[in-house]
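User: Hi! I'm a student and our assignment asks us to look at how structure tokens line up with a sequence. Could you show me two examples?

Assistant: Happy to help. In each example below, the sequence comes first and the structure tokens follow. Example one:
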Amino acid sequence: MADQALRVLLVEDNPGDAVLFQEMLAEADPDGFSLRRAETLLEALDQVAEFSFDVIALDLNLPDSHGLETFTAMRSYAPRTPVVLLTGNDDDAMAVAAVEAGAEDYLVKDNLDAERLAQALRYAVVRHHRSGRRDEPPGGDSGGGKLIAVVGSRGGTGSTTVACHLAEAAARLHGERVLLMDLDVEGGNVGFLVQTQGPYGLIDAVENVHRLEETFWRSLVDEREQLDVLPSPALLGRGELPPAGRFRHLVRFAKNRYAWTVADLGRLTRHTAVVMQEADRVLLVTTSDLAAMHSARRLLGAIGELGVPAAAVTIVRNWAGRWREGERIFEDVVKAQVAASLPSAEKELTEACTQGRLARPESEFGKAVSSLAAQLTGLPVPEPAGRKAGWKGWRLFSRQAEVRAGG
């Protein structure tokens, strides 16, 4: 039956071999296999992002990737899918190394027949299920990192400022490297706020997700003391973006590499939507002016439609005290409870920006974001030096939200 067919992704650049592969499957079982093909590793990753496959048949030597790195990249981005390798006669040692690294099987093309091919693909699926590998996290073998996605209800709410300070605070509090990723390709303001210097950034990473090994990755990010920054180019509507699925691949790579990644999404688009679906926490930054509050209400509905649980969304009210009348009716308009409030600190932030730095941790805004970072990442809220133990500062003031943000 067609609806019971095994879904196979064939990654093969040789047209003759691809035709032969298809003919063999048709000979073995005309209705038993549903086949899609990719000619390059990058094209295969696009297919993996868009479609669900039961098994991948992978040639190790492709136009954009060669040898064991081909399998390593595929397994990083599709850890739940069994892989069967297709090799030449002289690739046995490499194929064995790939099997030892997690491939289910390898087939020598010159020795292949229809029965052997069909059997290998079916057995690979069975072995993969029995081994329990389908329980691996979607981010790869470890996948232990967490992603905080920061999105503004509209322009001018200060979401980029919050994202930059949040990433810096998380790195400082945890004492380990944090990634700050700018996914706002229209604005690209992260690089401006933190004064990045490198020539590369987000689009370079997205277009080369199949090549993100250590040396190449280090050339893309701007390295600080405990913060890596991946800036955005501020395309401002110019140029065509890579497929949305590649942004998902990039985020999964980051979650494998960093304990915490903070992504500034800018506004909700097709590309940032796929990133939001990968987030462990979504920080919706708004203000108390009427337009921003109405936008926040609509955005909450859109976030819910993406499948993000309400408990994973934290509403942050920025520029507290500027619109006091709006604050009084905030929860009536937004139809949700505000979880944290950040002070209006225009003078403080402007001074920091003109000096090419972020607000100092001991400043009012710095202390407020440190408190927020601690809650979101599960650390105790830091008490500022020189204050009484009972000082509450700008802590999260909703007990329910406090529990949610910490969980």
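Example two works the same way, sequence first and then tokens:
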Amino acid sequence: MAISQRQIQKLQQTLSPQQIQMIKLLELPTMQLEQRIKQEIEENIVLEEDHSSEEEEEVISVDDYIREDDTPSYKSRINNFSKDEKQRPLNLTEGRSMQEYLGEQLRYRNLSEQELKVAEFIVGSIDEDGYLRRDMESISDDIAFTLGIEISVDELERLLKIIHQLEPAGIGARNLQECLLLQMNQWHTDTATKRLAKRILTSYFDEFVKKHYEKLISRLGVSEDEFRDAIDEIKRLSPKPGNLYSDSSLDASPYIIPDFRVDYHDGQFELSLNSYNIPDVKINRRYVEMMRDMVRADGMVDEKNREAIQFVKSKIDSAKWFISAIKQRHDTLMRTMQEILNFQQEYFKDGDKSKLRPMILKDIADRTGLDVSTISRVVNSKYAQTHFGIILLKSLFSEAMQTESGEMVSSYEIKNILQNCIDEEDKRHPLTDETLMNILNDKGYCIARRTVAKYREMLDIPVARLRKQI
């Protein structure tokens, strides 16, 4: 087939750079918006923080300074990259990592230089949760390839046993059973209960995981109280030893800054957008005056100043678009949150989830006249501060279920009933999904067993067999 070129005319809808900028700003929560504004101030010379208390608005027009046919040289250059596509390194200050902490402990061991290198390589293969999930043959091959050291699997096992003695307890385990046993081996006291717990993990681990408690009690020949005490000792162990490590210089707890504030006083709601620490921006008047000084009395511009004026003009246009996008973001967020508040007024009065009405994104989109995708971007990763706590906006949306009477109820109501049934069940004989389905059907909720299983998993509740207790 011959290669040929041809021109085709077609109509295509695309997003302008300003629309893309608006979409990205709409998705940002409050903390990231503050960083984004400060970044724009650093990149755009004509933008600055507005510290004035009074609002001064003046129309800035620089189109008259330059004729349309006067295009500076840099405007004709090809630029296929945008600011958003550039990868900027993030300079973060972090404390000591778990691998560095383990490496420091290894240096106190009586290891040769080669053994220390190999042990540090093994430590580098440990996952964040503290497990070593790679087999020794693969690690041996990697060490030979990267470090140029030929080492046997037996030697790796010997070094791994040294790593198992490090803190936090259980580090470097290959599976859950080994992890729990390593933590038990570091117990400083030896009691009958702890010996029984170690025996359960060593000889009857599969039965313990599957919670075949009656079978275990019979095989071990112990009483229920002795068995229960041993299980309590096992529950004190951590299934993820990596979580036991914490550096005092790091704060791993999440810090949430709400995007909205909803106050309720005397039967009235007051909604506001959290703009704390978000700087107001304006266009620096100095650059506009500088441009005016470059214009001659006859309204023309010297050739040497034309490119500088055009550069500043492009920065002013960009600044005006950015300020407009910030205002549009504010209006869209307030408009959407107001409709959510109107839709879920009963819930926002006291925070009772049983009062949540069935609500999907389309309901709010129809009320606001906005697109569903816009509503999705507004509620994504946004929080609201209320008098009963901070809530995630996305958690207010739920699907509708129909009762036998034809009434539409929220799925949260069904989840609350499931949670209450499971909380009040006999832990020796926990309720199965089919039993839970029958309970809901008796209450008038027409729901299938697979839907019960789906809601149970959403509530992070295990199956009946794993909820069994002695």
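Here is something you could point out in your write-up. The beta strands are 47-49, 260-265, 268-273, 281-283, 383-386, 389-392, 400-402, 408-410.
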